[in-house]
Write a structure and sequence with these properties.
- It is built from 17 helices and 11 strands.
- With 473 residues, the protein is an alpha+beta fold.
- It folds into 2 domains: 205 residues, Cytochrome Bc1 Complex, Chain A, domain 1; 180 residues, Metalloenzyme, LuxS/M16 peptidase-like (Cytochrome Bc1 Complex, Chain A, domain 1), CATH 3.30.830.
- The strands form 2 sheets. The chain has a 6-stranded mixed beta sheet with strand order 1-2-6-3-5-4. A 5-stranded mixed beta sheet has the order 7-11-8-10-9.
Length: 473
């Protein structure tokens, strides 16, 4: 009997300890959520980050492969046994999809991780998981992009898998039908979310029939008819060595990288045959376009104004100007006027969009239908005031300091840095960009910022598309 009672007491103790442990975990989780989400403080994170003081004393190395003359930017880092590739095929984005095959680039990107001639889809994914290898592909407006990250221990397997995805893709019809069904669901979901409807209407309104106005998913009637042969033809015509760019970081030497570039990418077609896409002509004087739609009580607006390309002499002054106007979160002019002072909206912002053929200042806001007109008026007033009077010396200095000190937060991983190296090449920023970027910010004057404000924040110089309830009862 005594033994039985001790057993029960022991079970009770275990249950009590288990309950106490669970309670402690719950309390800990609640504290974490409170500290890092409810009380999230980006300025504090920035000030305490070791990345804030990171500097790039040496330039990236330009590596050219011995056989195929494939060029890469490399930052070698032996402190962490990881290797990361970030690459793209310039001009092979969805705007270059053939007119009657809109959506093919998205299908190809999805199918490239569905196996190779040597491995089924399931075998391919299991091998990636077992070896902790990451391989991915995606399609944007202008470019077809890819990435690979691997530990040094499994680099040979990673190189082999990446090579096979690009040169021996499986393109199994069964997998293709499954991907088509997933994309079909994406088409249906687009119609359910007001933000998606607004995005599609916005593109169509400002771009019309230009390829920039296309649905990123393509057209279902085109996607539904695609065959494995179509996908293979796309690979041959769009993904070539002549439009290939790559950035590499991690534990790999220049000599090793040169050989790897030839081995993985040397069998790509020599020349892609992408049709030239002209720059769109946007009429920024178009009247606002309102779409009546039930949006759960929220009206949502998007706008676009003339912007500049990454290499334009106005880029850095406009970059600072936009940060002050709507790009700096809660401290921006827009947020202070509409959210902090009057509590009319949770989201109001602007940013620089750097599409190859259509650089823009874009942004938007959302509000309840009854507050929409008031927020709209505030936006219009702030836009016109900023264009006429510009920013103060204090605002420019604060913006510059934030942009300088926050920049290194972009390099939190080797993958992030590989992507920066990729776009340094695409935008022709030069090997010394990492050393010069902050210098370019530092030398911007208040006068230059205000000249950019006057030039680009023109009264009535933007076009807007809005969705929600606009009928006054």
């Amino acid at each position: 009997m005594a033994r039985r009672r001790r057993g029960r007491t022991g079970e009770g103790t275990v249950k009590f300890l288990t309950f106490g442990l669970c309670l402690a975990m719950v309390v800990g989780c609640c504290y974490y959520i409170y500290q890092y989400h409810i009380r999230f403080n980006p300025d504090k994170i920035l000030s305490e980050s070791i990345l804030k003081e990171k500097s790039f004393a040496s330039k990236p190395i330009e590596v050219i492969s011995p056989k195929n003359k494939i060029k890469a930017y490399l930052i070698e880092d032996r402190n962490v046994p990881i290797i990361s590739f970030s690459f793209l095929f310039k001009g092979a984005g969805y705007i270059s999809d053939p007119e009657k095959q809109q959506g093919i680039s998205k299908v190809v990107a999805a199918m490239l991780t569905e196996g190779t001639q040597k491995l089924t889809s399931q075998e391919f994914k299991e091998k990636l998981e077992d070896k902790a290898i990451g391989i991915s592909f995606s399609v944007g407006l202008d470019d077809f992009t890819g990435a690979m990250v691997t530990t040094k221990e499994h680099k040979e397997e990673a190189y082999s898998l990446l090579k096979d995805t690009l040169t021996e893709p499986r393109f199994d019809n069964e997998d293709l039908q499954r991907i088509k069904l997933q994309i079909q669901k994406s088409f249906l979901l687009q119609k359910e979310h007001p933000k998606n409807l607004l995005s599609l209407a916005f593109k169509e309104y400002i771009y019309g029939r230009h390829p920039y106005g296309r649905n990123p998913l393509g057209k279902w009637e085109d996607v539904s008819l695609l065959t494995p042969a179509d996908l293979q033809n796309y690979m041959q015509s769009h993904l070539g060595k002549n439009n290939f760019i790559i950035g590499v970081t991690g534990d790999i030497t220049p000599q090793e990288l040169g050989k790897v570039l030839d081995d993985i990418f040397g069998q790509l077609p020599s020349n892609s045959a992408i049709n030239f896409v002209r720059a769109p002509q946007i009429d920024f004087s178009l009247p606002a376009y309102n779409i009546e739609h039930k949006t759960g009580g929220q009206n949502i607006s998007r706008f676009a104004a003339k912007g500049v390309s990454r290499n334009d002499e106005d880029f850095y002054p406009l970059y600072v100007a936009n940060h002050i106007f709507g790009g700096s979160g809660l401290s921006s002019r827009l947020s202070q006027a509409a959210r902090e002072e009057k509590g009319l909206t949770y989201s109001i912002y602007s940013y620089l969009s750097l599409a190859d053929k259509s650089p823009l200042i874009q942004g938007g806001f959302s509000s309840t239908a009854d507050k929409y007109e008031e927020v709209k008026e505030i936006f219009e007033e702030e836009w016109e005031k900023f264009g006429k009077a510009g920013a103060t010396e204090e605002e420019v200095e604060n913006a510059k300091q934030y942009l300088l000190s926050s920049y290194n937060l972009r390099f939190a991983s080797v993958a992030d840095l590989a992507e920066i190296l990729l776009y340094m090449q695409k935008e022709n920023l030069g090997l010394d960009f990492l050393q010069n970027r902050n210098k370019n910010i530092e030398k911007i004057t208040t006068q230059e910022v205000n000249e950019a404000a006057r030039k680009y924040f023109v009264p009535n110089g933007y076009v807007s598309v809005n969705i929600g309830s606009f009928t006054k009862e």
